[in-house]
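Exercise 7b. Backbone tokens:
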């Protein structure tokens, strides 16, 4: 009996590291998902779709830049991380006090929220824009327009003297999203937006090339004055 108990005790100790590692693996994504405000980039180093010189030129051009995004199912966040891998910008995640459901409950929930004219509350402190010249602004398309959270964020932000670069992910098309962003950016200058549809069906390196080309186009038009 005593021997049996000692064995169990020993067994627990031998599998303790395993239990700890698996709990961390389970808990870490929950924290990553719930982080609001300034968040850490997911990508390490620029993807190999540009030469070192081209990468350096992009990073130098965008300088100290900010990438603001809202993302419930992860696509816009993924795109924000790809932009960050080129520009080395700071990331700021817009989030709401209310937690949106995931999976198939999300669309009916968001539709009900819209039909009942309910407005979510934004969580955390707004970002300090003082040090940034270029600000990327990313959002999904919801019901042919932008979700309440991104509209609210734009409503409470003064972009005076900033250059705003929208990026949008959608299942089908942009709807009015770009027009709504442009109309609601207060005091800022809106530059070439990026739209990616059916995000999850696109190959990662194709997205990276597409993003690199878009970022380079903005850089080249700024240097030629067009
Ligand atoms: C509530 C809701 C409404 C949506 N409405 C549209 C829409 O009108 N047009 C469209 O092309 N995609 C629509 N989509 C698809 C999302 O725009 C697309 O999956 C997007 O990449 C999600 O971004 P996220 O993963 O960053 O949250 C909708 C998705 C949700 C959850």
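Sequence design result:
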């Amino acid at each position: 009996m005593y021997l049996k108990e000692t064995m169990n005790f020993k067994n627990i100790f031998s599998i303790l590291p395993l239990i700890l590692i698996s709990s961390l693996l389970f808990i870490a994504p929950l924290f990553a998902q719930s982080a609001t405000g300034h968040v850490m980039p997911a990508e390490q180093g620029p993807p190999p779709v540009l030469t070192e010189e081209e990468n350096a030129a992009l990073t130098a051009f965008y300088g100290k830049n900010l990438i603001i995004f809202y993302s419930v199912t992860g696509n816009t966040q993924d795109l924000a991380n790809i932009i960050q891998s080129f520009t080395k910008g700071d990331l700021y995640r817009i989030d709401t006090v209310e937690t949106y459901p995931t999976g198939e409950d999300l669309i009916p929930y968001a539709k009900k929220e819209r039909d009942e004219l309910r407005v979510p509350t934004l969580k955390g402190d707004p970002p300090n824009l003082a040090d940034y010249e270029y600000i990327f602004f990313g959002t999904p398309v919801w019901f042919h327009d932008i979700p309440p959270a991104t509209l609210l964020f734009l409503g409470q932000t003064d972009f005076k003297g900033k250059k705003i670069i929208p990026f949008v992910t959608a299942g089908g098309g942009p709807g009015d999203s770009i027009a709504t962003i442009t109309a609601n950016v207060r005091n800022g200058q809106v530059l070439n937006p990026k739209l990616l549809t059916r995000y999850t069906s696109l190959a990662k390196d194709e997205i990276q090339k597409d993003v690199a080309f878009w970022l380079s186009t903005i850089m080249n038009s700024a240097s030629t004055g067009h």
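Instructor comment: The beta strands are 37-39, 66-69, 90-93, 134-140, 163-170, 189-190, 194-197. The two ends are 84 Å apart (CA to CA).
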